[in-house]
Amino acid sequence: MKRLLEDAGVQRALSYIKADDDRTWDELMEFCVIPAPSHEEQLRAEYVRKKFLEIGLEDVHLDAVMNVFGTIRGTEKTGRDRPFMVLAAHTDIVFPMSTPLEVKVEGDKFTCPGINDDSRSVTELFTIARAMIDAGIRPYHDLVFCANVCEEGLGDLKGAKFIFAQEKKPYAFISIDNPVDGGIVWYGTGSRRYRVTVHGNGGHSFADFGFPSAIHGLGNIIARISEIEVPKLPKTTYNVGVINGGTSINVIAETASFLFDMRSDSQEELDRMEGIMRAAVKDCIEQENERARTRHGITEERYMLTAEIEQVGDRPAGTQPVDSPIIRAAWEAAELVGITPELRDETSTDANIPISMGIPAICIGRGGREGGVHTTSEWHIRDNDWKAPQRTLLCTLAMTGLEGVIEPKI
Ligand SMILES: [Zn+2]
User: Fold this and answer.
1) CA torsion sign, 231 to 235 to 236 to 239?
2) Is the residue at 359 inside a domain?
3) What's the 222 CA to ligand 1 centre distance in angstroms?
């Protein structure tokens, strides 16, 4: 890190990022008001594609899922099979198309849904790329900048999964996507998500009393799930986050559904919880049907409840040694630029995918002060915003290497 920092080109790039802070901010003001729910990132992808071209990145293109790429070629002289690493930030936000995106200013506080997560990080890709090109820095291995899709919610890491499903995979991956500027997420919390739907015959609440109700069955399942006991370590959690169903107050519900999210640092715990959830669905439906038979004398199969369980999310868990080069590089780089490094363990991020495959990866913080992430009152206060991209540049160069200065650390 010290050798990197003494290099004149690196010095110039670091100064550039600081001087570029206002332009990066202006880009954020443009970018964060572009709607981009997961799976609908086309407008943002187009913005990034144009920006990458304007900056002068090579091989600018979109892949089949709308991840956008741009490359700074390394100085390495190997043939076609060039190793490359990826520096990424995600284009999608948690807000649907209908959420108004407008920046409100109150004193030094800027409020807009998604202003930080992960819009700010995408603009940090721009400033880092510009700084490298301006300073003439060419890494040893190829460096690919990527604005990827579908990190959030039911996007289910589709963008990162697609990158790592290709035959030629990056040898390292850094995602900028943490609310704390010096934050380093170094392992992946696994999660699985399900939509459980209960179907019944329905009926009139008075005339058909006794027919099994999809909502009653659903309530029963949720009550059973709420009793699942989980360990504190490895941290394991679950949540029923959304319920839907029914037609009217005096109608026995025909359908009802809920979304269920469970997370753990251990695949075994995820397996165990999934087993309990599946058993709960089966038992509770059977219980409702049995009540209809014995108490109300309803015997015909067509009146009985059925349930389906659809998996809508799967983020693998994975870990790596905490003294891995990529983690140490992020730590030391943060100290060198004057932000406080901090190991973070709260999230499931795009880095889950490479980490679960044994490929060195981290998720690190974006610049400035922020809060209210994933709410419509998400805010940002400008506070040495340039330091985080300075750290990211140093950390990235430690992974790519810089000819005549340092070898790649992986
Ligand atoms: Zn994010």
Assistant:
1) positive
2) yes
3) 29
Q: How far does residue 302's CA lie from ligand 1's centre (Å)? A: 45
Tell me the residue range of the domain where 45 lies: 2-188+318-400
- For residue 365, how far is its CA from the centre of ligand 1 (angstroms)? 10
Which H or E run includes 21? Answer: helix 21-31
Give distance in angstroms: CA of 7 to centre of ligand 1. Answer: 33
CA of 88 to the centre of ligand 1 (A): 11
- In terms of domains, do 178 and 269 share one? no
The CA 38 to ligand 1 mean position distance, Å, reads 11
Using the mean position of ligand 1's atoms as its centre, give its distance from the Cα of residue 246 in Å: 34
Averages of pLDDT over each 10 residues, the chain, 410 residues: 94 98 98 98 98 98 98 87 95 96 98 98 98 97 98 91 97 97 93 96 96 97 96 92 96 98 90 96 97 95 97 90 95 97 86 94 97 96 98 98 92
Instruction: Give the residue from 315, 344, 366 where a domain finishes.
Output: 315
Q: State the distance from the centre of ligand 1 to the C-alpha of 247, rounded, in angstroms.
A: 36
Q: How far is the CA of 121 from the centre of ligand 1 (A)?
A: 9
Rounded to the nearest angstrom, the gap between the alpha carbon of residue 9 and the centroid of all alpha carbons in its chain is 33
The reply to whether 389 and 293 lie within a common domain is no
- Residue 407 belongs to a domain: no
The DSSP-derived string for 268-318 is: HHHHHHHHHHHHHHHHHHHHHHHHHHHHH----GGGS-EEEEEEEEEE--B
Alpha helices (runs of H) in 204-266, residue ranges in sequence order? 214-225
Q: Which helix (H) or strand (E) holds 50?
A: helix 42-55
CATH number for the domain spanning 171: value is: 3.40.630.10
pTM of the model: 0.84
Using alpha carbons, select from 304, 404, 320 the residue that is nearest to residue 354: 320
Q: How many structural domains are present in the chain? A: 2
Q: How far is CA 297 from CA 208, 292, 293, 300, in A?
A: 12, 6, 5, 9
CA 349 – ligand 1 centroid, Å: 7
Tell me the CA–centroid distance for residue 145 and ligand 1, in Å: 17
For ligand 1, the distance from its centroid to the CA atom of residue 152, given in whole angstroms, is 6
Do 175 and 363 touch, CB atoms closer than 8 A? yes
Q: How far is the CA of 183 from the centre of ligand 1 (A)?
A: 13
